[in-house]
């Protein structure tokens, strides 16, 4: 279900999906995915509201997705043998992320 939460970072009310809830001191915190900004944020429980009827039917501008079977690669350089090979990596490097963002634009 989509709710409306107040994002302090954006300083406005946004539509959001609640990912998780945890107790913090005297109130609850919610981890939310902002469906129109594709961002995650933490929100205090007092800053959440039920979304009014007509607004709930507006399509989301952002969707959570992943690249199926796409694994990060990186360039492994061996200075001793003067070779370079592309191989698996634990995480995406900055250049690959920037290249992917350019492709999306």
The gist of it:
The chain is mainly beta. It has helices at residues 53-56, 94-104, and strands at 2-7, 12-24, 27-34, 39-44, 48-50, 73-78, 83-88.
What secondary-structure arrangement, pairings included, does this model have?
Layout: E1 2-7, E2 12-24, E3 27-34, E4 39-44, E5 48-50, H1 53-56, E6 73-78, E7 83-88, H2 94-104
Antiparallel strand pairs: 1-2, 1-5, 2-3, 3-4, 6-7
Structure commentary:
By secondary structure, the chain is mainly β. It folds into two domains: 2-57, Roll (SH3 type barrels); 73-104, no CATH class. The chain is built from two helices and seven strands. The chain has helices at 53-56, 94-104, and strands at 2-7, 12-24, 27-34, 39-44, 48-50, 73-78, 83-88. A five-stranded antiparallel β-sheet has the order 4-3-2-1-5, with no helix packed on it. A hairpin with a 4-residue loop joins strand 6 (73-78) and strand 7. The longest helix has 11 residues, at 94-104. The chain is elongated, with a radius of gyration of 20 Å. The mean pLDDT is 86. Keywords: ATP-binding, Helicase, Hydrolase, Nucleotide-binding, Repeat. It catalyses: ATP + H2O = ADP + phosphate + H(+). This is RNA helicase. InterPro entries: SNase_OB-fold_sf, Tudor. GO terms for molecular function: ATP binding; hydrolase activity; RNA helicase activity.
């Amino acid at each position: 279900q989509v709710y409306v939460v107040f994002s302090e970072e954006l300083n406005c009310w946004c539509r959001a999906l609640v990912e998780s809830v945890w107790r913090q001191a005297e109130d609850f915190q919610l981890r939310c995915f902002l469906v129109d900004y594709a961002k995650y944020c933490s929100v205090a429980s007092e800053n959440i509201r039920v979304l009014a009827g007509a607004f709930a039917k507006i399509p989301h501008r952002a969707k959570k997705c992943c690249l199926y079977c796409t694994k990060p690669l990186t360039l492994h350089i061996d200075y001793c043998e003067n070779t370079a090979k592309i191989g698996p990596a634990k995480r995406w490097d900055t250049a690959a992320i920037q290249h992917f963002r350019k492709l999306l634009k």
